[in-house]
Amino acid sequence: MPMEELWQAVYLLEVILIFAVIPFMGFLYEADSELTLPQRLKSSAAYSLVTLVVVGLVLGLAYGLAGFVEYEVDDLASQIAPLATQVVGSCLGGGQLCDGVRDEAATTSWKLRVSFPVYIIALVTIFGWLVFMVFAGIGCPRCPWTGSGSSSSARRR
Asked: What is the pTM assigned to this prediction?
């Protein structure tokens, strides 16, 4: 099965849920109760569209400016570079013909642009962990079964 594409689809569906569906439902819930259902749907769709445009601009600009990955690699060199295609087997097998086994390998840095779906997945993952840390730290002590929070204050009255 094409697992990389499936995971990318799952994470991109999560992005759609976070930045499109949840804001739409929040705006629909908070809409003026005196409006009719079509008016509330129209108002929620307008606010959701504005939210999507702002999020899209932020993500697009961030990808354009910082959508790169940079990592260090060790340069391995051989003194027999012209013959490298003929002696690859002995170079890898015994190592006696290669200079790359010494500690003198120079490190260089490669800078590559990541694909947009991978960039979005990375940002949503980082953002999700930050939100999880905040809400897990606040939410767990406030659980009703822990004896703290509004349920315990109601019992004391």
From this structure: 0.59
pLDDT attached to residue 146: 52
Query: Tokens 């086994």 map to which residue?
Result: 101
Q: How far apart are CA 21 and CA 13, in angstroms?
A: 10
C-alpha–C-alpha distance, residues 157 and 149, integer Å: 13
Q: Token pair of 151, please?
A: 């349920």
Judged against a pLDDT cut of 90, whether residue 142 lies above it is answered with no
Burial class (CB in 10 A: 0-12, 13-18, 19+), 48: buried
Q: Rg of the chain over CA atoms, in angstroms?
A: 27
